[in-house]
Amino acid sequence: MYLRVAMSDAVKHECGIALLRLKKDLSYYLEKYGSAFYGIHKMQLLMEKQHNRGQDGAGLANIKLNMQPGERYISRVRSIESNPIQDVFSQIATRFNQIAAENPEKLKDISYLKKHAGFTGELFLGHLRYGTFGRNSIESCHPFLRQNNWMTRNLVLAGNFNLTNVDELFDSLLAIGQHPKEKSDTVTVLEKIGHFLDDENDRVYAQFKQQGLSKAEITSQIMTHLDVGSILRRSAQKWDGGYAMAGLIGHGDAFVFRDPAGIRPAFYYEDDEVVVVASERPVIQTVFNVPYTQIKELEPGHALIVRKDGSVKEEEILSPTKIRKCSFERIYFSRGSDMDIYQERKNLGRFLVPQVMDAIDEDIQNTVFSFIPNTAEVSFYGMMKGIEDFHNLEKAKAILALGDQASEHSISAIIQERARIEKLAIKDAKLRTFITQDESRDDLVAHVYDITYGCIVPQKDTIVIIDDSIVRGTTLKRSILRMLDRLNPKKIVIVSSAPQIRYPDCYGIDMAKMGDFIAFEAAISLLRTTDRDNIITEVYEACKRQLTLPKEECVNEVRRIYDSFTDEEISNQIAELLTPKDLKSEVKIIFQKVDNLHKACHGHTGDWYFTGDYPTPGGNRVVNQAFVNWVENKNVRAY
What is the pTM (predicted TM-score) of this model? Predict the structure, then answer.
């Protein structure tokens, strides 16, 4: 997607994965669908339909089954171009276009294609990248590849994940004698799984060597007897984080493994032709035209394991913990075309109505309602439905109050009253994701939106405008409020469908520093203006003590920063901090209540960025480290 620059500024997040296994020979798809490239076409759709999950980069890997020694069986292409998905598939198409120019009939010759063209295999793994840390380079793009001359030791890995304890995992690799080329969660996980993949190969090799089989015979036995579940179970014992990890093994096994708290999403579908996994459910619905009920959610702590022979099973790898599915997926990240997410976002808007009505003194006639495009549109519909319901009750009361004075004209006048809806904010520029680094965001945010003139009665109307979230507030202060103030309203009410974002994320969202949060800045400001600076010092010392403990013993000390104030006091301080000094209009900011978030997004209880209630021990260590970094003026992420 385009770099989102809304009131909350850009929040990069959650990568996307797509895995596809064709269960039939390619000749089947050629005969039924008229193309030998059925798998490639489906992968392109699966990735395009998830472009909202990342456009810093894209990559695709493919494995061909049953190839002979000396024949290439793994293909991979990655891109960090401005439109990386398009670039990936353009690169893949180059070889096919060459074949078409030389001998078009060869495009229907399956044997020829498998021997002479890449990406003509049965197993695909695609990835869409939003980088949450570090520079955007081709080396950072998934899928990652660990190569070996033994087919069953080759590993392709891609995922939507962040681990909080990379240092610990890195040291564990050193302890077994490895020398990783880089300290990152991706490389660490690749080498960790790779180590136990090698170990499992050795185990099966030894088992059949004792039975007197030749080395060549043992190779085929390894393909059959490799225990993928055991490999993942041994690899993941110390992982702390959120993940949906996908992998391909060179001979044709595949897996997708989800974290025990269910933080990161994964959905799958299987029939007699395909097995497909994606980060979002409606993507599978659309690409394969299958009903909602046939798509399954991968259970937390489980792996979907697809064997070379096409058999599929969902296996428990780690015991599920308390389920804490990411609620930000529902608020903003995932596509709103999901049936459940669409209803949840409408409910997020509807549950804000009582606060909105208080903010406008129930004066619907002199209020104009709008939204910031585009992700807040669905919550706006929900908010307006709630306001319409409220208004209808008020109209019913007004009609009853007419009593004997009721007339067709007076009743009609009441019935025809409507809430005023206008599109006040217009996306005026599309900033693509080359604007990815913190230092280059702010220069352009003020130029992203324009406004619609002539919709507001000056000094009389109130503007109510909803967005999905407010993180830093930079765009709100520098652009949105100034833009709306040009319309000369009496009051501007900013509504966030998400609660106040108070704590850093360490599971895949680019919110890693305390200083990034306007809610934190507001709480600190309130502590200082009420002569309670001692709390800041006390929390700092407590956080430093926490950092000397094992992560399993850590607690979140930063919560004390907020304990002295109500949500409304912090919201009012946020409004004060974000209102430009020269603004003429009064500004009010409303946030979703956490309880209403849980009511709206039933089953997605992951709310640590709002409440500080982290789903893994590493989260508590991260938040304490983030506060220490802030006090010590270190502008680095905490993990």
Answer: 0.91
